[in-house]
Design a protein that fits this description.
The chain has about 270 residues and is an alpha/beta fold. It has helices at about 5, 15-20, 35-45, 55-60, 70-85, 100-115, 130-140, 155, 165-180, 190-200, 220-225, 240-260, and strands spanning about 25-30, 50, 90, 120-125, 145-150, 185, 205-210, 215-220. It has an eight-stranded parallel beta barrel with strand order 1-2-3-4-5-6-7-8, surrounded by six helices. Strand 3, helix 6 and strand 4 form a beta-alpha-beta unit. Helix 6 (about 100-115) packs across helix 7, helix 7 runs parallel beside helix 9 (about 165-180) and helix 9 packs parallel to helix 10. It starts with a helix and ends in a 12-residue tail after the last helix. The chain binds 3-methyl-2-oxobutanoic acid (KIV). 3-methyl-2-oxobutanoic acid (KIV) binds next to strand 6.
Length: about 270
């Protein structure tokens, strides 16, 4: 099989992604949920795109990541999978599918890989999910683990707060690595603990709210582009103010329709 046949999309592969840690190549990841944004983000040369279950909040308008279903994740992952030519594409496993055991996890992750052209799945957990991660990996399904703040456990935690239990966090990170995860997200862990974990594990750590010493970073697209309404978390940096700019454009269009400026000669047929 030629290398193009084995990787027809010519995307970054899972082993290439993992190897970036040793190459000291700092990894950038962004979330995406549809074709247009996924293709734009991909063209910018980020190494990874995540179809995050954050879509439950930023696309569907729920107040947590819990409501999104497997079918809905697959629907959005299909759009992203069609768009991305270069980045590694990872899809979140929705709550509570992987808590139902390895069989259900393989069945669901299998559907994601078969139907979406995406290459890997992500799930929240460390020690508690080691068995499921190992089962997925032995079925040939690459797994990105997610350690630290676990948004799917918000009701158990009571709030989205910074994680500081260093021994548990280290145990989770080590368990995920030993189970065969190819990388892990570290969400809202103190920068000091994230730095120690990053130095201790051999697979890339992708931080969100976890300081600069992680091997890479991820941001939710809506936060990064300034599309999010209201206050954003401390760890977010908005690189644009698209909400303002989009609303400016739509308001101008509305005014021009009202006062007869649009459509003008240029937009009319003779
Ligand atoms: O769902 C998501 O967007 C995520 C990132 C915040 C890591 O899991």
């Amino acid at each position: 099989m030629s290398s193009q046949a084995s990787n027809p999309q010519r995307r970054i592969t899972v082993p290439q992604f993992t190897a970036m840690k040793n190459d000291d190549h700092r990894i950038s990841m962004v979330t995406a949920y549809d074709f247009t944004f996924a293709s734009m983000i991909d063209e910018c040369g980020v190494e990874g795109i995540l179809v995050g279950d954050s879509l439950s909040m930023v696309v569907q308008g729920h107040d947590s990541t819990l409501p999104v279903t497997l079918d809905e994740m697959i629907y959005h992952a299909e759009m992203v999978g069609r768009a991305v030519k270069r980045a590694l594409v990872v899809v979140d496993m929705p709550f509570p599918i992987y808590h139902l055991g390895s069989f259900k996890a393989i069945e669901s992750a299998g559907r994601i890989l078969k139907q979406t052209r995406c290459q890997a799945v992500k799930l929240e957990g460390g020690v508690d999910q080691a068995e499921v991660i190992a089962a997925l990996v032995s079925a040939g399904i690459p797994v990105m683990a997610h350690v630290g703040l676990r948004p799917q456990s918000v009701h158990q935690m009571g709030s989205y707060r910074v994680q500081r239990e260093s021994a548990q966090l280290m145990a989770d990170a080590k368990a995920a690595q030993e189970a065969g995860a190819f990388a892990m997200v570290l969400e809202c862990i103190t920068a000091e603990i994230a730095a120690v974990i990053t130095a201790e594990v051999d697979i890339p750590t992708i931080g969100i709210g976890s300081g600069v010493d992680c091997d890479g970073q991820i941001l939710v697209m809506h936060d990064l582009l300034g599309l999010t309404e209201g206050r954003v978390p401390k760890h977010v940096k908005a690189y644009a103010q698209l909400r303002e700019s989009i609303q400016g454009s739509i308001s101008q269009y509305r005014d021009e329709v009202r006062n007869g400026q649009f459509p003008g000669q240029d937009q009319s047929f003779r």
